[in-house]
Design a protein that fits this description.
The chain is α+β, with helices and mostly antiparallel strands and 159 residues long. Helix content is 34%, strand content 14%. Helix 2 packs across helix 5 and helix 3 crosses helix 4.
């Protein structure tokens, strides 16, 4: 069946089965920026924002979110027009294989939207549940701190 969804500020009619997870529906409808890691809600690779809050899309039934705003990492910035948070990840060297990056970026984005001056501990709490097998997290936390500094220095807001 086809049902309407709002993804990255656009209305889309997506093909799905009633018992499918949001992760499967998104990936089956060409939102491949949403990664499938563990399919058990443990790794954070499938993170999307639902009404601005990070969730593991592998743990959400797609039918339950029709009325909600779904944001993937491409909803905040793309390869050609990256968000300044995404630029900070590159500048800090926080992207290695890149598999965890969409989830890390979205968790960081949600944190900075609510708290533009987080402590290192608050960043670690916000990223908890997002696994990275490459970086050891230091550069990821550095990227979030770098973005927070840009927010303060340039009097910016997360958009």
């Amino acid at each position: 069946m086809k049902l309407p969804f709002k993804i990255n500020n656009k209305s889309k009619n997506l093909e799905l089965f009633p018992n499918e997870t949001l992760l499967n529906v998104l990936r089956n409808n060409d939102f491949t920026e949403v990664k499938c890691g563990c399919n058990e809600g443990e790794c954070g690779s499938c993170t999307v924002l639902l009404d601005g809050k990070p969730v593991n899309s592998c743990q959400v039934l797609a039918m339950s979110v029709q009325e909600k705003e779904i944001t993937t990492v491409k909803g905040i910035g793309t390869l050609y027009t990256p968000h300044f948070l995404q630029k900070s990840f590159v500048e800090a060297g926080a992207d290695q294989c890149g598999f965890c990056s969409p989830g890390m970026v979205l968790a960081s984005y949600s944190l900075l939207k609510e708290n533009p001056k987080p402590t290192r501990e608050e960043i670690l709490v916000a990223l908890d549940g997002n696994l990275c097998r490459c970086t050891g997290y230091v550069k990821i936390v550095d990227a979030v701190e770098m973005t927070a500094q840009k927010l303060q220095t340039n009097n910016l807001e997360m958009e």
